[in-house]
Amino acid sequence: MAEALQWARYHWRRLIGGATRDDDSRPYNYSSLLGCGRKSSQTPKLAGRHRIVVPYLQPFKDEYEKFSGAYVNNRIRTTKYTLLNFVPRNLFEQFHRAANLYFLFLVVLNWVPLVEAFQKEITMLPLVVVLTVIAIKDGLEDYRKYKIDKQINNLITKVYSRKEKKYIDRCWKDVTVGDFIRLSCNEVIPADMVLLFSTDPDGICHIETSGLDGESNLKQRQVVRGYAEQDSEVDPEKFSTRIECENPNNDLSRFRGFLEHSNKERVGLSKENLLLRGCTIRNTEAVVGIVVYAGHETKAMLNNSGPRYKRSKLERRANTDVLWCVMLLVIMCLTGSVGHGIWLSRYEKMHFFNNPEPDRRIISPLLAGFYMFWTMIILLQVLIPISLYVSIEIVKLGQIYFIQSDVDFYNEKTDSTVQCRALNIAEDLGQIQYLFSDKTGTLTENKMVFRRCSVAGFDYCHEENAKRLESYQEAVSEDEDFTDTLSGSLSNMAKPRAPSCRIVHNGLLGNKPSNRLAGSSFTLGSREGASEVLHSRQAAFSSPIETDVVADTRLLDKFSQITPWLFMPLDETIQNPLLETLYIIDFFIALAICNTVVVSAPNQPRQKIRHPSLGGLPIKSLEEIKSLFQRLSVRRSSSPSLNSGKEPSSGVPNAFVSRLPLFSRMKPASPVEEEISQVCESPQCSSSSACCTETEKQHSDAGLLNGKAESLPGQPMACNLCYEAESPDEAALVYAARAYQCTLQSRTPEQVMVDFAALGPLTFQLLHILPFDSVRKRMSVVVRHPLSNQVVVYTKGADSVIMELLSVASPDGASPEKQQMIIREKTQKHLDDYAKQGLRTLCIAKKVMSDTEYAEWLRNHFLAETSIDNREELLLESAMRLENKLTLLGATGIEDRLQEGVPESIEALHKAGIKIWMLTGDKQETAVNIAYACKLLDPDDKLFILNTQTKDACGMLMSTILKELQKKTQALPEQVSLSVDLHQPPVPQDSGLRAGLIITGKTLEFALHESLQKQFLELTSWCQAVVCCRATPLQKSEVVKLVRSHLQVMTLAIGDGANDVSMIQVADIGIGVSGQEGMQAVMASDFAVSQFKHLSKLLLVHGHWCYTRLSNMILYFFYKNVAYVNLLFWYQFFCGFSGTSMTDYWVLIFFNLLFTSAPPVIYGVLEKDVSAETLMQLPELYKSGQKSEAYLPHTFWITLLDAFYQSLVCFFVPYFTYQGSDIDIFAFGNPLNTAALFIILLHLVIESKSLTWIHMLVITGSILSYFLFAIVFGAMCVTCNPPSNPYWIMQEHMLDPVFYLVCILTMCIALLPRFVYRVLQGSLFPSPILRAKHFDRLTPEERTEALKKWRGAGNMNQETSNYANQSAGKSGRRPMPGPSAVFAMKSATSCAIEQGNLSLCETALDHGYSETKAFEMAGRCKD
Amino acid sequence: MEERPQHRLSRLPDNSALKQQELPAHRLYFTARRVLFVFFTTGIFCLCMGIILILSARSTQEIEINYTRICANCAKLRENASNFDKECTCSIPFYLSGKMMGNVYMYYKLYGFYQNLYRYVRSRSNRQLVGKDIKAVDDCAPFKMSDNKTPIVPCGAIANSMFNDTIILLHNINSSVQIKVPMLKSGLTWWTDKYVKFQNPSSKNLADEFRGTTKPPNWPKPIYDLEKKDPRNNGFLNDDFIVWMRAAAFPTFKKLYGRLNRTHHFIEGLPAGNYSFNITYNFPVTRFHGEKSVVLSTLTWCGGNSLFLGLAYTVTGAITWLASFAMMAIHIMLKNKKISVFHQ
């Protein structure tokens, strides 16, 4: 009871909140509670926009009441109903549906005595049944939610109690804002809270957010500054701080606020300090936090929007036909009313039939006709197929159930299968015309594999590594013979214009057949692959293909030159080779530390490796550091600018270090390490033995350094470390660094430990991290270099961005500057090269700062960090101040491997007539290469590139291309006609010319402009494939929107990342790939798959099935209702249009509700026109769904005509038989009903393509239930149900041979036309679907034969079109450059795509490309 | 955020035939060859059935005499409602050319009488007719109560409009001798009607039971006086009444009036010769532009002499045969052209 009261109270508050929402422009409604009602006068102005949280404790009681008292508590309720309001609310919701309102209208109408047609109670029956069924469904769903809610609400957590002065167990639901909560390891966080204490000495806390976004890697959260340094736990009694933060919102990646101490000192809060509800504490013994958002205001709850409801195209189509049915109904009723009027006027003076009203009043024929109209509506109500909606819902549930239980969608690796999040658009899957795909993570695996790098202008192509990848792939997929041989032969023709190392590459692996010849390497490879697969199960973090990197020998050679002496201040004389070595060192250090990777060991999952030397050190607050810096900066003027990584003038930093124990923890505090490093400096510390000595060293470190001697039994070997990164390419770089003995050992907020082979363990003090964001497209770490003691900034980011931030060297500068210029040029060349290979490129740069510079920067940065309002802008500005004048170290090329089965899927979808657009944020070259690799573009395709700087140029270019395309098709009318195919109607884009369009982000912006939209769409309609590169998330959704709204086509968007969310939401169907990038895309999607290749089965098989099933079922429903209702209508012609029904009302109602309801549902769920196998083998069959062949407007009318015919037969055969006889009304109705039932059921049998025992069961069940009802009802009902009296009629009839004769004859005549039509269709002009259906009957051998023939027919057309294409090419403006122009394509696996000339059709307008600066995105930023 | 349920070991769906939609199914594929058999058999069945039905329908005999105009003077008399108590009889002689063998049934047939109007059909009280509560007249509007508020028995429009002509069939053996053809007034109804649906109140004296009620306005005498001689045919159990109360499906209908009592002279049916109907003309039909006639008919297993069913069967059979020949032609054509079904 108390619970119910609380619910009511909570709900009331929600209502108030909702009510005031309208006049309140604030975006988040829950908190508007604060600003409304009686509270508003007391609340400070600020509280309107910000939330103030005060501890829920005695001293602050008043304040608490004032601010936080009104906040929602932690109880959650996701249910829609309560016990009390279930009936009214459910009814209210149900009567929002037009169909139910129609029913209600009929019921009400029937209560008007003048127009009454049925007994009052009977008309209510369908409504009651429909309402009850749906109410039960809703109720059960809600009850399930209620149980889950209850379970969650009653979870126990430790909350600080004022009374007992300690943490006591309390239910989640009783947690309120301002409570202190103490959580232990592996506990789930009950509410959003600010982290105030962690047992971790560094003040960090690891959380797993898989409950929130599905990402399984650990994320770090940090204790609020100022609290991390406290040794003891936060004492809630003494906590006198007030927290001010933004109002509840659903942005998971943002939290802004500050903490105000009693002395008005403010500390900024960010998402790093916030523990989110639903996450799990890991790796941390215990944490304490104060609740800021609770219950429904937590970010997790605000993000939890339920399933989505869309209306499918088919349903829209059906709705228009329902309207036609309404028209028909009105016409029929008008006929009835006019007929009745005329009939009555014949007997105007004869009051015998003109049965007077109860009060003996006679009404005029006109009025009687008017009343009759409404009576007819009641009588013929079934014409509007209301039960259709209920049936559709049931059918869709069944379809979804079958989709979800398809084994083929199961992915073993992730233990996931397809997820249908939208319940009612499954049939849209069968009608997709345009597919918009993301690239990274969708087409590719998003498993980043380090492939190549360029350091200091030298390219290291890592052949061994490439070979390893090749062999791995061979083991995985061996059945790509066809494509392999093709690509092999093509690559032979490729011009070896690549740099030398690529030729080697080509020789080694470019040619798969040659690789095959070298049998030994092949077998070795496969064995390796197998073992790796095995290994991957154990490791579970990343697959071995990502973790194992084989070092490049040339680069390893250069490593031998590395000695710690390099950092000696005396080495000014050492020239270029050493400078290069320095670059290499910095490069790999940057790879290892410039990231946010968390280190853990696989045998002890989730156990952080903590370096012992860090244990127990006091942690200073940032304020202290800041003040120190300020003091320092006053005294020191400036330090010389450093750009070559050399030791700055000594002295001052040392002084600085000695003043700052925080920064100098390592050196002065640990003399032992100095010794060790000295040992290491000796020449015998060679790189080859580094690995083992290193670990030993570490152990000795552990023992020596830390007096507490925290024993680490599980200290893993260096090679066993596991890295958990936020993005897979970060991990790839760290693994790459590890391959070069530059191993990231541990990471804490203050320090990063790196084991560098030649230099020994290096501990970098982490001064600052500027995390990655998609605006800057880069990230930076600021560290203090342990050897040189300088402040160094390592930056990693998209090449376009980094290249602009490099220090501008004057041409007459010093030699290092000159060299930097050379490096830059060379690196740029390498970068272009990598991109052409389809690699993701990143640039690595560094910058050395003086301490003063750093202090100055830090001060500004600090200001930016603590501001609440426009913090983003300030932080961006601050980052800009830091990341400039960089020195380029090198670049990396990371391969994002294509997912398994992607080319096959794309090919199949192409064949199915789906136009595929790839929308990616990647560079043009990368995108084009991936497009070729996944067969999105064909080597024979004519490629157009749209890349212009201005809108006008864009328009001009488009019109030029269009003209050219039109010219070509006009020039070849014969070919066009030749390529016309039976199952490929001559649409312009199919006329033989295969073209692809590449468009870049900037140009896309022009093309999306209103004035060019039309032209752009026209252009794209000529192209099989369109690739948009460098597209922003917004552009992606705009493209989808444009195509969807202007071309009126069905669109599907598929993506895996947060950047695809908008696109997924805009498209008719959004599909999320549950991959590496979290769950945002999945959350926004209608369907979620685990791999792209599942898309082909989802569309080709399930889409086709769902569409044909549902459309056939809907048509059948229309047919059924019209056929049956018309019987009643025809009878009106013989009863003076008086609204008599010749059937008992119960039979009439049950006929629809019971006897004929189950078969169509079963038909809609189980019908299988063509087997899944055939559908997969013949993607062309999908086209029937695209053209909506199963349910065209005329199909509806044909169905109706057939229904009319059948009802005529069904009425008039018995009529003529019994004409003039002594048959009574209900005895006449009985054969009619019986024949109608059989006709309707047999019609279904004729229409269905396959019958299983379930069909048989349901059909016989329907027939039996009809007879059973008729017999039982006929025997029981003597006086019941006054007007109708079917007493003993069925029994009487079943002894009468005429009854059977009439039924049989009626059935034969009624079904003959449709049956004959189906037979003729089957033998004379079978549709492709019918022909394909025939395949399912064949034996396997016959089947392959038949398939071959089918394909042969298809290929003929293909050839014709190819011929047309080639001729078209010849007439083109720029002829294609012969065989050398063939783009050699490797199998996706090795991705060793060799580049000859792209068969591009470049125009004069697009050479501005290289200067394009806009929309360059970092490799990390996913398209 | 809903907390996740316990993590299952595997989400691998069930690999059963039903869930994978791999149930063994009978694939229906209609081509000319496959359905030939179906067409031929259907055709044969329909043709046979048709011939049998036609033959049996032709074996029946039926005589229908429309007496609307023949008894014009009576009709005129009845048009005025005030003449209801004036008796009017009319004799219709006719000649039966051949004898009617077997059971002969006498019907009266009405044209243009809509017994199937919605309000008309509803205007009856089954509870009253079953004899349980003779005062239950709720459903009988507008003939529920008489003007002095006594319930009408039997109430309702159907009962009120009951056909009340008396038809007597006379056999004129010669010009002077007329024999009344014996007609049975029993067995005209369904068994269930007579023994379940219609029951008199359980009392020996019907008049007592029906006291406190009034007769329908159109009736000349109360329900308990319908057949004074035979108590099993009186009151609600009167066969004519029961027959009338079964509302006809169409405006033109016939209702059984009597069946030949095959005794003495008529043991084999009606012999050929001169007959006449003596009709007491009570039921007005001209007011609703209707007609009435009297029918003598014999029956077979398949009902009366309606040829429709037989003809329809024959035609359907013929069409089916034609269709099957067309199918065969198509099949042969396809075969000759060696166009297989799936290769164009």
Explain what you see.
The complex is a heterodimer of chains A (1423) and B (344). Chain A has 50 helices and 35 strands. In chain A, the strands form six sheets. Chain A has a nine-stranded mixed beta sheet with strand order 14-34-33-32-15-28-31-30-29, sandwiched between helices. Chain A has a nine-stranded antiparallel beta sheet with strand order 17-16-27-26-25-24-23-22-21, sandwiched between helices. Chain A has a six-stranded antiparallel beta sheet with strand order 3-2-4-13-5-11, with no helix packed on it. The two termini of chain A are 54 Å apart. Chain B has 344 residues and is α+β, with helices and mostly antiparallel strands. Chain B is 28% helix and 18% strand. Chain B contains nine helices and twelve strands. Chain B has helices at 32-58, 72-79, 118-122, 126-129, 157-160, 191-197, 206-209, 239-245, 308-336; strands spanning 26-27, 62-66, 89-96, 100-101, 104-111, 166-172, 178-180, 183-184, 253-260, 269-270, 273-280, 291-298. Chain B has a five-stranded antiparallel beta sheet with strand order 2-12-5-9-8. A four-stranded antiparallel beta sheet of chain B has the order 3-11-6-7, with no helix packed on it. In chain B, strand 6 (166-172) and strand 7 (178-180) form a beta hairpin. The longest helix of chain B has 29 residues, at 308-336. Residues 1-9 and 339-344 of chain B have low confidence and may be disordered. Chains A and B meet through helix 6, helix 44, helix 45, strand 35 and helix 48 of A and strand 1, helix 1, helix 3, helix 6 and strand 9 of B.
